[in-house]
Design brief:
alpha+beta, 4-stranded antiparallel beta sheet, 6 helices
Length: about 500
């Protein structure tokens, strides 16, 4: 069903009055949400001191000028509010929701449940034929929100057995890429639709594979993650995915990433490269090998970006660079959890694995977990964050738990800033994910294709063997040989438990 109108009246302040049509599971979730007193939930949801609100007003006025016309008024009202916390809370919401990129453009998001917890944060697609296929929990709908009026519309609603995930808006703001699965017997496939819900078309359709995390490239092509080269997670039995590329109409699909585990959550960098999550077992502990990597859009020059040998957090995922500064937003998560955790702001110029490069976390207490407690330490963060999207270099959209309770999975869309404010933009049952503006944005430069598409041999260069992780103490001139070690992917699994130390299955043990 396309363009099925649903409304929640009055914007972020009226969260629980819902009208649904043909979508009964959402009504159930909404009623459960309404059972919590609204005043108590609001007190836990939003934060920000008077000083933080003042800095937000000043930054918005400086950056947006006439597009933020109420700056002087907000400062006068802030002076008048004094210590009145109720007045401050109302003013804080007014200020942040007056951000021009929220007022001038609607938001797209996905309304769905949180993914069911599995062994690792990479396992969210529950592919047909996996041991956990039945963890697939529809429904999920692609939605559009007008923040100023509170008007909510469904753009793509596939019905009670379908789920949508991973939307990405085109550079002109007129189209949306996303992945959809129509039932448990279907796979995830890439689709494209107009911002108004028209022109839905399916771009991939391979049977019994999952195509997720699509992203537009500035030359018109599309990058996505797929299980088309099937392989198992090395310490479990769910399927992993690699990066693929195709033309804008779905033609010429080819693989551009071949790591032995998982590559996903791709985003574009200002210089045209692709940032993505990569789970890498080579030369590191099995639990803390999820880091941010970069690659050219043609699949050349895969390289570590940040967070490859940390210990804690176990995963650094969902990286997006700020549009105005060379800084990166990411989620610090546990290895054995959902893909959520602390929101973090990182400056790679200060080091690839260093505490000095961590500028800020949300919640602030999550900074104390960096490098401590092991690869699952960030599983205890509350509230948890997911799917960050920077509006500019100071204000960020993100999906966040509605209350700071580790057992409560309800997620809403929040606007957070670098000054200490967190304001609820929208919430509805069962949860809101992947928020981003339906707005035009600048295209990064196109990086020319540098690869060959034949099978001719290539050459691997090591420019300086003494530069790299843990090489600082190795005396120059002492290295005489290089050992090249291949780590093959896992094509089979053994039915015998691996005991945390690995196991080589052979003969009839293979399944």
């Amino acid at each position: 069903m396309i363009g099925n109108l649903r409304e929640t009246g009055g914007g972020a302040g009226n969260l629980w009055r819902m009208k649904t049509r043909g979508f009964f599971p959402y009504m159930i979730a909404a009623l459960a949400l309404a059972a919590v007193p609204a005043r108590a939930v609001s007190a836990a949801m939003e934060v920000g001191s008077a000083a933080a609100v003042r800095r937000a007003v000043q930054e918005l006025a400086k950056d947006y000028g006439p597009r933020f016309p109420r700056g002087a008024e907000f400062l006068r009202r802030l002076d008048s509010a004094g210590q009145d916390q109720e007045s401050l809370a109302g003013l804080r919401r007014e200020v942040l929701l007056a951000h021009p990129l929220l007022r001038e453009h609607p938001l797209v998001f996905v309304a769905r449940r949180q993914y069911r917890k599995d062994h690792h944060n990479t396992e969210t697609f529950f592919q047909k034929g996996e041991i956990n296929t039945h963890s697939y929990e529809p429904p999920g709908v692609l939605m559009r929100l007008d923040v100023a009026s509170g008007r909510v519309e469904s753009i793509v609603d596939g019905g009670a057995t379908a789920e949508v995930r991973d939307p990405e808006v085109s550079f002109d703001g007129r189209k949306i890429l996303f992945s959809m699965r129509k039932s448990m017997d279907d796979g995830w496939h890439i689709y494209e639709v107009g911002a108004d819900g028209s022109g839905l078309r399916q771009l991939t359709r391979a049977a019994e594979v999952c195509d997720i995390d699509p992203m537009y490239l500035p030359d018109g092509a599309i990058i996505f993650t797929s299980t088309r080269e099937p392989k198992y997670c090395m310490c479990n039995r769910h399927i992993m995915g690699n990066l693929f590329r195709m033309e804008g109409d779905g033609a010429n699909i080819h693989q551009i990433g071949r790591s032995t585990l998982f590559e996903g959550h791709a985003s574009l960098m200002p210089d045209g490269r692709v940032m993505y999550d990569r789970w890498e077992y080579i030369d590191r502990n099995f639990g803390d090998g999820q880091a941010l990597w970069t690659v050219n859009p043609d699949g050349t020059a895969h390289s570590i970006f940040w967070g490859s040998n940390l210990g804690s957090p176990g995963g650094v995922i969902d990286g997006r660079m700020l549009p105005g500064e060379p800084l990166t937003l990411a989620i610090f998560c546990a290895c054995h959890d959902r893909p959520w955790g602390a929101l973090a702001l990182v400056d790679r110029r200060q080091g690839v694995n260093t505490r000095e490069s961590l500028l800020q976390t949300w919640p602030a207490s999550a900074t104390n977990l960096f490098g401590r407690g092991g690869f699952d330490s960030y599983g205890g963060v509350a509230p948890k964050f997911e799917d960050p999207f920077p509006l500019d270099d100071h204000f960020f959209l993100v999906s966040r738990q509605l209350v700071a309770d580790r057992s409560d999975e309800r997620m809403g869309i929040f606007l957070v800033d670098r000054f200490g404010n967190e304001v609820l933009v929208h919430a509805e049952g069962p949860g809101c994910f992947d928020p981003m503006p339906l707005a035009p944005r600048a295209k990064p430069p196109v990086i020319p294709v540098r690869r060959k598409y034949d099978r001719s041999p290539g050459t691997f260069f090591v420019e300086n063997v003494y530069q790299g992780t843990s090489m600082q103490s190795v005396p120059r001139g002492s290295v005489k040989f290089l050992r090249v070690v291949e780590s093959p992917e896992k094509r089979f699994f053994s039915p015998v438990a691996w005991g945390g130390q690995g196991r080589a299955g052979a003969g009839d043990e293979l399944a």
